[in-house]
Write a structure and sequence with these properties.
This protein has 171 residues and is mainly α. It has 7 helices and no strands.
């Protein structure tokens, strides 16, 4: 909070009051607290903590399904790939979209590969599969562009942050 007060100039009491109220709102409603299991004070106060943790666990379990639109070798950690055996009938992006919504949370940390292989998925006519592939291609391309941009921004941050912290540059 002292960063908010000391770094900004306030010309009337209402400006300072608004800044403090904004900071308190952020602190209580948007900032996650490690001491509260990465929940906000508002979540804890309203009794939503367990619900949020369950949702996070489901997301964490399901996040093992990844779309890999480039050549990929299995890792030594046992990474498995599920590939479409007929890319004209079911493009890889359609296979991924079919598998990503499978709830694997009840399998704990077991190997999920065998459960995914057992799942039945609907195979649309080839024309619909092709239309789907063409439609989502731009979105996967945008996702890849965002990943590349994120890497660049991370490099810039890692380069500039030490200079900012040392006072070599100012904002």
């Amino acid at each position: 909070m002292k960063n908010v007060i000391k770094l900004n100039h306030y010309f009337c009491p209402s400006e300072l009051e608004n800044a403090i109220n904004g900071w308190v709102k952020y602190y209580n409603e948007r900032r996650f607290h490690e001491s509260l299991d990465n929940l906000t004070p508002k979540d804890v106060y309203l009794g939503q903590g367990e619900k949020i943790k369950k949702i996070r666990e489901i997301i964490k379990q399901n996040s093992i399904n990844k779309y890999v639109p480039f050549p990929f070798a299995k890792g030594a950690d046992g990474t498995q790939l599920i590939m479409s055996s007929n890319l004209n009938l079911i493009p890889q992006c359609l296979l991924f979209s079919s598998l990503v919504n499978i709830d694997l949370s009840s399998y704990s940390y077991a190997r999920h590969f065998k459960y995914l292989k057992e799942e039945e998925i609907l195979v649309p006519p080839a024309l619909i599969a092709s239309i789907f592939k063409n439609y989502v291609a731009k979105w996967y391309e945008k996702i890849q562009q965002n990943r590349e941009c994120l890497l660049l921004l991370t490099e810039v941050r890692d380069h500039l942050l030490p200079k900012l912290m040392s006072g070599e540059i100012t904002v």
